[in-house]
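Risk mitigation, structural track. In case the binding assays with S-adenosylmethionine fail to produce interpretable data, a predicted complex structure has been prepared as a fallback.
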Amino acid sequence: MIIRRGSPLQYLIEMNSFRYFHPPEARLAPRADATSRSGILVCMSQEHPPLPVGVSHGQHVPVLLKATLDTLKPNKNEKYLDLTAGYGGHADAFLAKTENFTEAVLVDRDEFAIAELDRFTQKGARLLHQDFVSAAEALAEDGEAFDIVLVDLGVSSPQLDRAERGFSFTNSGPLDMRMDRRTGRTAKELVNTASEDELMRIITRYGEEPKGVARRIAQAIVAKRPLTTTKELATLIEGTHRGRRSKIHPATRTFQALRIAVNDELAQIERLLPLLPKLLKSGGRVGVISFHSLEDRLVKRYFKEQTEAGYEAELSVITKKPIGGVTHDVHNPRSRSAKLRVAVKK
Ligand SMILES: C[S@@+](CC[C@H](N)C(=O)[O-])C[C@H]1O[C@@H](n2cnc3c(N)ncnc32)[C@H](O)[C@@H]1O
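Fallback model:
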């Protein structure tokens, strides 16, 4: 099977299937020939590069770190805003350059990430435990402007690896999938209450499953509910699978779809993008890293609108083509499907 670079399918493989097919030690095994060639993923067990030295299973490795530093060019004393600070990998590197902790703002909607980021508050940084739209609106309203804004979309490795978060179908856990556990409906509520048509729409739109497959999965869910664990759901979806087994687990796309729906991920991105110029000083830089085409399409469209807006444009796009993890960050498996787009405030 040919899997195109940066396609949703490649993303799914990166995020879930590798852990389905391979024990952690397989991911850690050093390999010499660990890059994908010509955009074709040939054999999964042969393809993943080793994690960087000193990084263990479940630890989050910042994606496209060098590329973000090279393009966003943090300077001493500059003001840094990280809208998806996660485990602070990018923040560590950027703040090492700006040395300006006291004006830095780090945002995440996940309480585990916020607990991890506490180390930055000891140096004076401000943490906001909020979704990035609410945080961006509040900062813009307060007239705060930054030299660098970073948005590294999606989930972190620790979110995927902790069974109790309910993101993963390989480790059984409660069907939760909320990044922010204080609010919103869980995946359990969604699968147990949504109509068959709504489930089908979610699986088609956010999982990009063909309609026939999505219908079968939605029907099976409705017939079997209530469902409570990720394993139950994954096994149910496996049972609906017809034909030859592909390399990805049959539940991969549905899990992605539910996660996007539970966290309202695409609407969050759509609402955030027009707020970005308001958060930048003149000459300030923004970088957005996306992991699949559903996300990247939104960023690309917004940047294109800016490019075409002529005198009215607030941003000038400096990445005519996105910087891709396939060529710019071959040592980090999570980077494979990542795309970085960068713009500067006029
Ligand atoms: C890929 S990780 C970021 C990793 C980070 N750059 C690092 O180096 O550690 C994405 C993070 O963004 C957070 N996140 C995703 N969507 C969000 C949103 N709409 N609002 C706030 N945080 C969000 C997730 O909880 C997760 O911690």
